[in-house]
Write a structure and sequence with these properties.
Blueprint lengths: L1 H10 L4 E7 L5 E7 L3 H7 L1 E4 L13 E6 L5 E3 L6 E9 L10 H13 L4 E13 L21 H15 L4 E6 L5 E6 L2 E2 H21 L3 E3 L13 E9 L2 E2 L12 H21 L5 H4 L9 E5 L5 E4 L13 E3 L8 H17 L17 H6 L3 E2 L4 H9 L2 H7 L1 H19 L4 H7 L4
Parallel strand pairs: 1-6, 14-15
Antiparallel strand pairs: 1-2, 3-4, 4-6, 5-6, 7-9, 7-10, 7-11, 7-12, 8-9, 12-13, 12-16, 14-17, 15-16
């Protein structure tokens, strides 16, 4: 594989190579090397100081090695010199995979379920906003859901991004304007989870690069504008056994197999424990509030978009498309970690044959508290610290992520919460200073 890629680099006349990996929070890191150095990088890797990367090594064990994954070779668009990129796996100097590498954590869990005969497929819906600049969060269009505006600048940026995705071999299923002004969505065709996590990181880079080249700013901040819908990352998912969709059962009224029902049961049982991984920022919980389409209540339904998990309507002849949709994650999460804990929660349901609670098809936002209690509908955590406290006592999350990332993630998020809660905001000054 390495020889084939090296030959491809030469044939494509690549000048530079970007070596990509993400830190524990999902922030992209990169090395740039001349193409003629890549053969050496494949043979030896490239060393770096892990103590300088968030959530990676401690100072006294800081030496780490990044090794490119040859299967992730792609040409990057929009750069003056022809440049390729590889995603990297991170190793200790002795050669073992590094426990702090979140890509490795997902790969390790996928290998675990592969031994049980399953593959995990994901199709994400990525929502985001365009603004004039990060310093000036002024919207650039006034469109609404599915609006067609011939000269809409945001739609032009979105379509250019979709075109670049297709050029890089990433299949786009749809793109459209979202509910809020200046908010857009791009949906990717499903793929195996590790490949999809790589594609999602790449798509986010393209979204930002296209916007920046046009003089604008794209953000995946979950709730950038007060009083408007925030941005979600709806995750469509299914398990396959070979070529067979393990979630599909033609004789069930909802076309759900026993495997799918137990999987959903596992997600519902563990969702509060995994929420801090799927919604990892203080700002994430400004989105997860009633009234703005983001799910708040732990429930499932077929047509109910106030439910946490939706079962898309089955289309005859589309058995492979049978899936479930988790609607709570947001686009600012680390996809490698989010996909891992989602899978761990669902797979725990399969192993324990957990039952599927009754569907909820009413609008839960308008349901009386007494009725929600009668139906045993729980709430998602209402703040980052509440979510972290749920995660901290979760054996499932600790086992899925491993002790290193589990500990480092919680430590980082507690620091973030402390920094947030000690701030004196402009709202407090406006509301309190004149009267207290």
């Amino acid at each position: 594989m390495v020889e084939t890629v090296l030959k491809k680099l030469s044939e494509d006349q690549v000048k530079y190579v970007e070596l990509w990996f993400v830190d524990i929070l999902g922030q992209l890191k990169t090395f740039t090397v001349p193409a003629e150095e890549v053969e050496k990088v494949f043979a030896e890797g490239i060393g770096f100081d892990g103590s300088s990367i968030e959530g990676f090594a401690r100072i006294y064990e800081s030496d780490l090695i990044a090794r490119p994954d040859p299967q992730t070779y792609q040409i990057l668009p929009l750069l003056e010199e022809k440049t390729a990129r590889f995603f990297c796996n991170i190793y200790l100097p002795e050669g073992q995979p590094y426990d702090g590498d979140t890509r490795y954590i997902l790969r390790r869990y996928l290998e675990k379920i592969e031994q049980e005969g399953y593959t995990f497929n994901i199709g994400p819906e990525l929502e985001y906003f365009y603004f004039r600049s990060p310093e000036n969060p002024e919207i650039i269009d006034n469109g609404g859901y599915f609006d067609f505006i011939p000269q809409d600048l945001g739609s032009q940026l979105r379509q250019k991004t979709m075109k670049l995705c297709e050029a890089m071999g990433t299949k786009v299923e749809a793109g459209h304007h979202e509910v809020s002004p200046s908010q857009h969505e791009i949906d990717l065709r499903y793929d195996e989870a590790l490949k999809m996590a790589d594609k999602l990181i790449t798509l986010k880079v393209l979204v930002k690069q296209v916007a920046a080249r046009a003089g604008y700013y794209a953000t995946f901040m979950p709730k950038p504008l007060y009083g408007l819908n925030g941005s979600g990352l709806h995750i469509h998912q299914s398990l396959f056994q070979g070529d067979k969709n393990a979630f599909y059962n033609e004789s069930d009224p909802n076309f759900l197999s026993p495997v799918a029902k137990s999987y959903v049961g596992g997600l519902l049982k563990h969702i509060r424990e995994i929420t801090s991984i799927c919604n990892q920022w203080v700002n994430s919980y400004k989105r997860l509030v009633p009234g703005y389409e983001a799910p708040v209540y732990v429930s499932w339904g077929r047509k109910n978009r106030s439910a946490l998990i939706r079962i898309p309507i089955y289309k005859p002849g589309k058995e492979k498309a049978s899936r479930i949709e988790l609607r709570s994650p947001d686009p600012a999460c680390n996809p490698y970690l989010a996909f891992t804990v989602i899978l761990a929660a669902g797979f725990d349901g399969i192993k324990k044959n957990l039952p599927l609670p009754p569907a909820v098809e009413e609008d839960i936002y308008r349901m009386e508290a007494k009725e929600r209690k009668r139906k045993k509908i729980q709430l998602l955590p209402g703040s980052l610290i509440e979510a972290i406290m749920e995660t901290e006592k979760s054996e499932l999350v600790c086992q899925a992520l491993g002790e290193h990332v589990f500990t480092k993630f919680i430590e980082n998020k507690k620091i973030e919460w402390d920094m947030y809660r000690t701030q004196v905001t402009s709202w407090e000054m406006k509301e309190y200073l004149p009267v207290l």
